[in-house]
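Bit of a strange request maybe. I'm writing a small parser for C-alpha cell strings and I need a real example to test against, not something I typed by hand. Could someone generate the C-alpha cells for this chain?
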Amino acid sequence: MEQVIAVAGVLIKDNHVLMATRPEGKSHAGSWEFPGGKIETGETLNEALVRELAEEIGVVAKVEDCKDLTYIVQNYGSKQVKLHVMLVKRWVGEPSGNEGQKLYWQDLNTKCELQPLLLTTQRILDLLII
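Reply from user aminoacidic:
Good idea to test on real output. This should exercise your parser:
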C-alpha cells in the first residue's frame, strides 16, 4: 500500500475555519478538505505547511504560528494517508484559490453541509466542534 505523509492547515478566524476543494487532476478532485499537501524531503512539518499555504491559497504564515492539532491515519483504497493537522491562527494575506479550488469559511457553530467531504476532513471538523 502506498503511504503518503502530508500536512493540513486549519486556518481559524472568528470561529470559522477555511476549507478548500481539491483541484482538478488530483485524486478526489472537488472534495472539500483543509489546505495542505505532501511533505517534501528535508522539510519539517511546519515548513511544509508554510510552503503549501503559500502555494495553494497565497497566504504567508510563520513556522512558529503553526501548532500541532492532531494526527490522522486514513486508508483510501490502495493509499494510506498519514496526515499531520496543524492549527493556524495568524497569517498575512487574503486566502485565494491559486490552483482553481473553491474556498469556504465554515462556521464551527453550524453543521457543515459541504459535499463531498474527505473522511479526514470530517474527522477534523468533529474534533473542532467538540
